Amino acid sequence: MLELKDIKLSYGSTQVLNGVNLSVKRGDVVSIIGPSGTGKTTLLKCINYLAKPSSGTIAFDNVRMDYQRADKAAVQAIRLRTAMVFQQFNVFKNMTVLQNVMDPLVVVQRKSTDEAREIALRELERVGLSSKRDSYPSQLSGGQLQRTGIARALAVRPDVILFDEPTSSLDPELVGEVLKVIKDVTSSGITSLLVTHEMQFAKNISNRIVFMDRGVVAADGSPAEVFDAPSSPRLAQFLQSELSFQ
Amino acid sequence: MDVSAMIPELLSALPLTLAITFTALIAGFCLALIATTLRVRRVPVISHLVDLYVSYARSVPVVLQLFVAFYGLPLLVALFGSEDFFSPTIAAMVGLSFYHGGYLSEVMRPAYLAVDRGQHDAADSLGYTFRQKITRVVGPQAVHFALPGYGNSIIYLIHNVALVMYIGAADVMATAHLIMERDYNQYQFETYLVLAVIYSLMCLVAWLIVRFFELRSPMQAPEATTTTPIKNELIASV
After folding, report:
1. CB neighbours (10 Å) of residue A48?
2. CATH number of A2-245
3. How close does chain B come to A126, measured CA to CA in Å?
């Protein structure tokens, strides 16, 4: 359903993505792992055009776009079918938890307030935040903020959900509540791309692991293939350092 | 003439003072909004011209800006064949609007830039258009950041309205001088004291209104004080 071809992107003289190819099938749960600075987050942001590649193509079912000739309609079509959960939460600070989840439904999807409210309350129930629906972001913990972000992403009924290091900004004691919700989301069958440093978690919930190194996909396979039989010394070294740390 | 007779005479000039202030407030706000939009979107050439305007409004003394408006704008209007259009009051309104607009733009622009980049990203990723993003997400947050500076700029504007007497507009300051001259400068201290009270009250009302909106801002919600229990056991379960 989603295919990225030869994605290249640089920030100034630093080449971040150096020809990434990636295809995702409907229902896949793909974890993207790799050392910091290898372009994992940037790749995720290329999908919904928050980062603008210098070249490459994206195909999202029947929507196709060449990044060198990106057009607004295609970008909007892709954005309406994806939803992103951010490392820094990025919950709208001027809205309550409930308004955060409702607003995209009312403003972008033109749903009625009643319908949007119903959907939002259902998703907040799902992530265990019903009791906080009238709280503002400044009144929430990091874990609650991230669960708000997940509820907002789920409410728009995306075809693909993009998790960008959803637990990296959390205190260790708050990581569990967010991972639990992500596990619940991914096990419901929704196509997911997850950038993470939680190796054990990635192994448990994913059906595919993509290892990125120096701006390219250096390994791609099932969790068993990647974790139990690393295809390169670089991957083995990375896994060893990550798993020993955890 | 005693003080009690002087007060109503001073207050009779208050409507004109308020008219000049409100016109400059509204027109200046619109100018600032346009200038800020052009500056943050970096429209080629135009944004540089706007930078020049903002620099003029902030660096040239306000009284000089009023003289430029008073002597310069009639010449400009005369080019289009409508002479005698500008009265001192209109020149004061135009001059102060341009001053306030430029000054306020330097309050709005940093407030816009103070909104976290992630808020833009979140709105973009959800498919908000630029207009929806500004009206629903970025604008309300920028207003929160801008309010204290906006309050200050209103107070500066009220102070600077007192300068319109130099171009002949009959505001409370000009009226006070007329009263003092008519009474052979007998009650200077009393007149200036009443004037000080009038300006203080105008600034107080402006400050209270801005403060009201500051406190009503959703981003002003008190922060949580409760701690979240340790949930390490959840990590093991996933």
Report:
1. 25
2. 3.40.50.300
3. 16
Task: Measure in Å the smallest separation between the Cα of B41 and chain A Cα atoms.
Answer: 17
Taking CB atoms and an 8 Å limit, are B230 and A173 in contact across chains? yes
Domain ranges of chain A: 2-245
Domain boundary assignment for chain B: 3-220
Contacts of A107 in chain B (CB under 8 A): 128, 132, 136
pLDDT in tens, A56-65: 999 998 899 9
Does residue B226 have a pLDDT over 50? Answer: no
Please report the ipTM that was assigned to this predicted complex: 0.92
Chain B hits for A83, CB-CB cut-off 8 Å, are: 125-126
Using left for φ > 0, alpha for ψ between -120 and 50, and beta otherwise, residue A214 falls in left
Owner of token pair 């959703």: B218
Distance in angstroms (rounded) separating the CA atoms of residues B26 and B47: 22
Strands A191-195 and A160-164: parallel
Any chain A CB within 8 A of the CB of B232? yes
d(C-alpha A29, C-alpha A222), whole Å: 10
B3-220 falls under which CATH superfamily? MetI-like (1.10.3720.10)
